[in-house]
Design a protein that fits this description.
Length: 174
């Protein structure tokens, strides 16, 4: 049985990893990348739905920015999503163990963390391919990346908010 303390520890781990990877400025961190690119948003922070827009954004980062972006994808974009996935998995398990839900809802709660991670890793793989091949354009990937970003966001929001909403509903119904 998953304990509330385990959920809390996983949540604190996400907060600590988020702070380290997003707020601290060191080579490979998001804060460092944002500073080096003059505040350009990376592709997985803001969905891009056309190849032209994707390559426009990559061009705006400059050569140094693209190099730093590559480093960030190979470090931060591996560590942070795995930490978030672990938290979402623990939260889903905690919720499904405590509530009697339909098999479909139970399955949805347990699948969303994996969906989040899968969308994020495919998105990161696309970014890597785009960066490794830049300035050569791969139109299909440049135009498709936004859909993986959107899928990641949907799975993330469901994994983040559905379990607490169900637990709150069950608590107020009791």
């Amino acid at each position: 049985m998953t304990r509330p303390k385990t959920v809390l520890i996983a949540f604190v781990a996400v907060l600590v990893v988020f702070f380290i990877t997003h707020a601290l400025k060191f080579p490979g961190s998001l804060a460092h990348l944002m500073q080096a690119t003059g505040g350009q948003k990376i592709l997985d922070m803001q969905a891009s739905f056309s190849s032209a827009e994707t390559y426009e954004r990559l061009a705006a980062m400059g050569e140094v920015g693209r190099s730093l972006y590559l480093r960030t994808v190979l470090t931060i974009d591996l560590i942070f999503p795995v930490t978030v996935f672990a938290f979402f998995t623990v939260l889903a398990r905690f919720t499904t163990e405590r509530l009697r839900m339909s098999p479909g809802l139970n399955k949805t709660l347990r699948i969303m963390p994996a969906a989040y991670l899968a969308f994020d890793f495919v998105e990161n793989a696309i970014v890597l391919v785009l960066l490794w091949n830049y300035p050569e354009r791969i139109g299909l990937l440049g135009g498709a990346i936004g859909w993986f970003t959107r899928g990641k966001r949907v799975a993330m929001l469901v994994a983040m908010f559905l379990p607490p909403a169900l637990l709150l509903k069950a608590r107020t119904s009791a």
